[in-house]
Amino acid sequence: MKRLIFSLVFLALAFPAHAEDITATVIAVRDGDTISVRLDGECLPKIFRIHGVRFYGCDTPEKGDKRPEIAALAREAKAFTEARLKPGQKVLLRDVRRDKYGGRLVADVDGLCGELIDAGLARPYTGKGKKPW
């Protein structure tokens, strides 16, 4: 519990509500609109360099959706993102902020939201109420 509290306090201090651009290395694609990255640079202790990053500006369907057509769309969105972001690839996280829960980072990642929306695999999302798929 103490480690969790320390981590959240550290994240709050390390990432202000609105930060500069950050260079990161892709570790994995979690789903269509979320990736895991290792932040570049030596200013952070190693334990704090790995983060989930949600794409700012779009929402893709959830892979655990019980409706087969929505789950299939979620898999397609993930495959789309995996085709563009490979493990080990460097990306620029622009307009970085924390999500409302203080855990994940939210950022523009190489303009992928626009591509996902144009492909019909995501909807625009501003953080204020999601439309159901």
- What's the CATH class label? Mainly Beta
Distance between the termini: 36 Å
Shape: globular
Q: How does CATH name the architecture?
A: Beta Barrel
**Mean of the pLDDT scores?**
83
Helix proportion range: 25-40%
- Describe the sheet with the most strands: 5 strands, mixed, barrel
Order of helices and strands: HEEEEHEEHE
CA radius of gyration: 15 Å
Regions with pLDDT < 50 over 5+ consecutive residues? 4-18
Structural class: alpha+beta
Number of DSSP E strands: 7
Whole-number tally of structural domains: 1
Number of helices: 3
Q: Order of strands across the widest beta sheet?
A: 1-2-3-6-5
CATH topology call? OB fold (Dihydrolipoamide Acetyltransferase, E2P)
Tell me what portion of residues adopts beta-strand conformation: 25-35%
Structure description:
The protein is α+β, with helices and mostly antiparallel strands. It has a single domain (2-124), classed as OB fold (Dihydrolipoamide Acetyltransferase, E2P) (Beta Barrel), CATH 2.40.50.90. The protein is 28% helix and 30% strand. The protein is globular, with a radius of gyration of 15 Å.
